[in-house]
Design goal:
Layout lengths: L1 E9 L3 H19 L2 E6 L4 H7 L5 H9 L2 E6 L14 H11 L4 E7 L19 E7 L9 E2 L8 E2 L5 H16 L4 E6 L5 H14 L6 E6 H10 L6 E4 L1 H12 L9 E5 L5 E5 L16 H13 L4 H16 L17 H10 L3
Parallel strand pairs: 1-2, 1-3, 3-12, 5-10, 8-9, 8-10
Antiparallel strand pairs: 4-5, 4-11, 6-7, 11-12
The structure holds nicotinamide-adenine-dinucleotide.
The site of nicotinamide-adenine-dinucleotide has 21 residues, from loops.
Length: about 350
């Protein structure tokens, strides 16, 4: 197949990890006979410096022409003034909003080889393989607010409509069908009206997926079970804020921020794929970054935007094989001498794809 992929390296370690993600995609194209064309564009702090805008019009136009976007990370100390009128993360929000990317998918797996990097007992990590489906464009982060930092009060509104909940619930149920067939919907229906609507709507959508088991969990109990018994979860469906918090909590199960990929999807096949970590300015430019999160994001791109399931699985298997064989970047190394560079790690993944 032919596909056009836009890469947005961004700032800090972004360019380093995107280079590795693109190498893996090129290797997939060569091995399976696909033709991927790549276009690189500016986004984030580097785009502010070059064009005064974190998401220049040319970048947006390139994304519109593409089948998918592979994004690194944006931000850094030189653009970190929270009161500055133009900031790198505004580019991210505008990109998501422009393409109405309402579903954020974050797979979390625990790799037995990395158990010592998590604060949990190794036996609790056995079989941990979950997928967060987080609503990304509504909820309390987008509701009406009164925001007066110097006033005596302030408020935010958690708003959800039935169509907003139903469309992200469908993404979760469809994903569960390709996995272990179980959805845990997270809410706070005992207290919040918007969450009672959430629960009612998810239950209604479940009727269209009789082969998938649905359970409802209150967010506070779910936060506890995620650490007490993480292996019991398959797909976790959550609103914007609860999904944000719980998926960060679950990220400790993977051993490093450098391990976790994400996909942001709308109604079509177009998607934006990015590691969940930031631009890591503390290690930028030193070949220390773990490219796994970006390589696994490239696998999600193959799966969700290009429909190349076998190729996506092959990349995921190659990552696991490299880890099992002892390949370690500095963040997941047991001892400093064990660590290999960003590109040497990717070489080991590519060995598994050959
Ligand atoms: P961060 O994720 O960049 O880094 C946190 C810690 O994890 C650092 O010690 C870093 O070295 C390490 N780390 C992160 N990714 C790694 C990788 N792939 N390999 C090895 N180690 C890795 O978070 P931060 O330090 O809070 O933020 C730094 C900058 O990134 C800030 O400007 C922030 O706004 C931005 N940020 C961007 C995004 C995004 O683009 N989506 C997300 C979070 C933070």
């Amino acid at each position: 197949m032919h596909a056009t992929i836009v890469t947005l390296p961004g700032d800090g370690i972004g360019p380093e990890v995107i280079a590795e993600g693109a190498r893996v995609l090129r290797a997939v194209a060569a091995r399976w006979g696909h033709s991927f064309s790549f276009e690189e564009a500016l986004m984030g702090g580097c785009a502010i410096d070059a064009a005064g805008d974190p998401l220049p019009d040319e970048t947006l136009a390139a994304c519109e022409r593409a089948d998918a976007v592979l994004l690194g990370a944006v931000g850094g100390p030189q653009w970190s003034d929270p009161t500055a009128p133009v900031r790198p993360e505004q580019g991210l929000l505008r990109l998501r909003g422009h393409f109405d990317l309402f579903a954020n998918l974050r797979p979390v797996r625990a790799y037995p080889a990395l158990a010592r990097h998590t604060p949990l007992r190794a036996d609790l990590l056995d079989g941990v393989d979950m997928l967060f489906v987080r609503e990304l464009t509504s909820g309390i982060y987008f509701g009406q607010r009164q925001e007066q930092g110097d006033g005596d009060d302030a408020w935010d509104t958690m708003y959800y409509s039935v169509p907003q909940v139903a469309r992200v619930a469908r993404v979760a149920f469809a994903a569960a069908r390709g996995r272990r067939g179980q959805v845990t919907s997270v809410d706070k229906a005992n207290v919040l009206a918007a969450m009672r609507l959430w629960r009612r709507t998810v239950s209604g959508v479940a009727a269209d997926y009789p082969d998938v088991t649905l359970e409802h969990a209150l967010v506070d109990a779910c936060a506890m079970h995620l650490l007490r018994n993480p292996a019991r979860f398959d797909v976790l469906l959550a609103g914007n804020m609860f999904g944000d918090i719980l998926s960060d909590e679950a990220s400790v199960l993977a051993g490093s921020l450098g391990m976790l990929p994400s996909a942001s999807l709308g109604t079509g096949t177009f998607g934006v794929y990015e590691p969940i970590h930031g631009s890591a300015p503390d290690i930028a430019g030193q070949g220390l970054a773990n490219p796994t999160a970006t390589i696994l994001s490239a696998a999600l791109l193959l799966r969700h935007s290009l429909g190349l399931e076998a190729e996506a699985r092959a990349v995921e298997t190659a990552v696991e094989a490299a880890l099992d064989a002892g390949a370690r970047t500095a963040d997941i190394a047991a001892a400093p001498g064990e660590a290999i560079s960003t590109s040497a790690f990717t070489d080991r993944v590519l060995d598994g794809l050959a």
